[in-house]
Each structure stands twice: as structure tokens, then as C-alpha cells.
Design brief:
Layout: E1 10-13, H1 18-29, E2 33-38, H2 44-55, E3 60-65, H3 75-78, E4 83-86, H4 98-118, E5 125-129, H5 165-182, E6 188-194, E7 196-198, H6 209-218, E8 230-235, H7 236-248, E9 254-258, E10 261-264, H8 265-270, H9 273-276, H10 289-299, H11 305-311, H12 321-327, H13 334-347
Parallel strand pairs: 1-2, 1-4, 2-3, 4-5, 5-6, 6-9, 7-8
Antiparallel strand pairs: 8-10
Helix pairs in contact: 1-2, 1-7, 4-5
Pfam family, one: Epimerase
Domain NAD-dependent epimerase/dehydratase: 10-247
GO molecular function: oxidoreductase activity, acting on the CH-OH group of donors, NAD or NADP as acceptor
Length: 355
């Protein structure tokens, strides 16, 4: 059991990112000193959302220059920290060089952070933001599971550089983390495996793929319909709470599926109709799989026929019972998360009314 000294600073990588931003908000509101390693500590425009949070919180934030791919660059930021949250990893699907843009930052970045933890005597726990993408690659993989549900015991074996490279990068990064963690006894490793993250972030102009999906639901991209493409989803605020509890729950260990709902893209879009359906082109019907298979790759290069074949009309089912039982996480209703996320985009002018 690991007890973290709450008066010690806490390091968060990727602090300007979608998930980490909400986690930093929680830490600051709880009075912690957050060490935030960033590429450019003097880029006030990029740091303005974090600075605004710190200004209205009892905690404070300190910036340190660091690069995910540069060995040793986290030493200064990690000094004196007992708890390290490693959230930094790219989430994008439209890439030209998956090795360079996804695998290297995910795997080498994880290695640099964890090897720095080995060299920092104060560190007692590392909480790694992995993904359910390290558990499965395609929805059809559900058919190979022992009980027809994805659990923490399962690893993604169907992804590669050529197929689902993002999922492949997350799998390699988490395996690297366990390899390094198992070779030492100074700190313990707790892993968070979220599904698709939705909900309002601290930066309304976020670049995570999550923003693109919800934006497309409301900007007419999917006005002809959306497929029954199964997802697990979780609110970013609930995910931040899960991270916090993973850091400070003494008995926390292993992997944790953090997912609120087994749903699909059509069901997600339908939660927006009562509030936004009159003014925005929310899809009201589904796209047949055969039609998506035919035209999908022509519209979006990242949507391959193999991906469509292995995901559309297949459900996603994950077991979140460990997160509830061991971390005490509770989850918001799907409609609450979707409507809050959509409203944030509307408020900041990212979506235009029809007519």
C-alpha cells in the first residue's frame, strides 16, 4: 500500500492536453502544487487556460521545459514529487507516418518518463494514462473474449502499424511501462484505460480526436446518417476523478477500465436531439454498413474497409466494475456528457445553426 504525501508537488505530463487539463484543474482546486513539464514554459497563449485555473484555485502551478522524446528532460520537473501522472500521448488518426507520429512519442515518451522516475528518489507512484485501445483493436475482437466482454486481463493483438496504428501505439506504450515497472521496486504503477473521452475540457479549442467526432455530429458532416459503430465512452470529468483516485488510493494497483457506457455513434448522437435537434443538423438515421463500406474510404482515407468491416454493427462491451469497486468511481449519464460537450462548442462558436 502506497501513501502519498499530499503536501508534496505532483507532476503531470501533457498538462495542456484534454484529459490532463481537467485533472490539473482538480489538483489545483484541491490545493496541490502541480509541476507541469511543457515544451515552452513562456508560451502564455498555450498556457492561458491553466493559468486561469491556477488564479482561481488554492493550489499553484509551476512550469518546466521538457520534451517527451528527450532523455532526462523531466528531471527538474519530477524532483521532489512522490506522484507522477503520465498522460502525454497523441490521439489522432489522420497521420502520414504512424511510427514517427504515434508509436515513437507514445513508447519512447513513456520510457523517458518512467526511467526518470527510476532516477528520482522521491517518486512512489506513477499513474499512466493508457487506453482501452491497449485492450482491443476492433469491436469484432469481442468475439474472442472469454465472456463476451473486454476486461483488464485482455490485450490488443489485432492492431499494427498498418491497421489501427493509434491502438498499436497505445499497446506498445503500456507494455513498455509494465516492462520498466516490473524491473524496479521503488514506485508502483497504476494504469488507467479509458474508452472514448467526451465532455467539456478546459480548452474549448482542443485538438483531441474526441472534439472532431462531436463536431462532425453537429456540423452536417453526418447529416445523412451515422453508423452503428460501437464505443465505450467516458466523461472527461469522471476520467479526471479516476486519475485522482488512482493516485491517492493506497491499495490501487494494475489496470483499470474507465468507461461509463457501452454505446455507439448513433445512440450518442440521439442524446443531442431534444436540446439541439431543431437548430443543428444532428443525424436522425443510421447509415447502412454496405454504403459506408462503399463510400467511406473515398470520403475519409483513415476509414479503411477493413476497419468498417470489423467495427460497424458490432457492439462494444467493457467491464468497468473494477473502477467502481477499487477506485470508487461513479459515472455521469451519457446525455449529460454529450450535451455539456456540445454546448461548450456552441458557446465558443465552433458550430453554426442551420437556416
Amino acid at each position: 500500500m502506497t501513501q502519498i504525501n499530499r503536501s508534496a508537488p505532483v507532476m503531470v505530463t501533457g498538462a495542456t492536453g484534454y484529459v490532463a487539463g481537467v485533472l490539473v484543474k482538480k489538483l489545483l482546486q484541491a490545493g496541490f502544487t502541480v509541476h507541469a513539464p511543457v515544451r515552452d514554459p513562456h508560451n502564455t497563449d498555450k498556457l492561458k487556460y491553466l493559468n486561469a485555473l491556477a488564479a482561481e484555485s488554492t493550489g499553484n502551478i509551476k512550469y518546466f521545459k521538457a520534451d517527451l522524446l528527450e532523455t532526462g528532460s523531466y528531471a527538474e520537473a519530477m524532483a521532489g514529487c512522490e506522484l507522477v501522472f503520465h498522460t502525454a500521448s497523441p490521439f489522432k488518426v489522420n497521420v502520414k507516418d504512424p511510427q514517427k507520429e504515434l508509436v515513437d512519442p507514445a513508447k519512447l515518451g513513456t520510457r523517458n518518463v518512467l526511467e526518470q522516475a527510476n532516477q528520482t528518489p522521491s517518486v512512489k507512484r506513477v499513474v499512466l494514462t493508457s487506453s482501452c485501445a491497449a485492450i482491443y483493436g476492433d469491436n469484432i475482437d469481442l468475439q474472442q473474449t472469454p465472456d463476451g466482454v473486454f476486461t483488464e486481463e485482455i490485450w490488443n493483438t489485432s492492431s499494427s502499424l498498418a491497421h489501427n496504428p493509434y491502438s498499436y501505439s497505445k499497446t506498445l506504450a503500456e507494455k513498455e511501462a509494465w516492462r520498466i515497472g516490473d524491473l524496479q521496486s521503488q514506485w508502483d504503477l497504476v494504469v488507467i484505460n479509458p474508452t472514448l473521452v467526451i465532455g467539456p475540457g478546459i480548452n474549448p479549442h482542443g485538438t483531441s480526436e474526441s472534439f472532431n467526432i462531436i463536431r462532425h455530429i453537429g456540423d452536417g458532416t453526418f447529416s445523412a446518417g451515422v453508423p452503428h459503430w460501437g464505443f465505450g465512452v467516458v466523461d472527461v470529468r469522471d476520467l479526471a476523478e479516476a486519475h485522482f483516485r488512482a493516485g491517492f488510493t493506497p491499495h490501487a494497483k494494475g489496470r483499470h477500465i474507465i468507461s461509463a457506457h457501452n454505446t455507439d455513434m448513433f445512440a450518442m448522437s440521439q442524446t443531442l436531439l431534444p436540446r439541439f435537434g431543431q437548430n443543428y443538423p444532428i443525424p436522425r438515421k443510421t447509415v447502412p454498413k454496405w454504403l459506408l463500406w462503399l463510400v467511406g474510404p473515398l470520403v475519409d482515407k483513415t476509414m479503411t474497409r477493413k476497419m468498417i468491416g470489423r467495427n460497424v454493427n458490432y457492439p462494444w462491451r467493457g467491464d468497468n466494475s473494477k473502477s467502481k469497486r477499487e477506485l470508487g468511481v461513479s459515472y455521469r449519464p451519457l446525455a449529460d456528457s454529450m450535451n455539456a460537450f456540445f454546448q461548450q462548442m456552441v458557446h465558443h462558436g465552433l458550430l453554426n445553426k442551420v437556416g
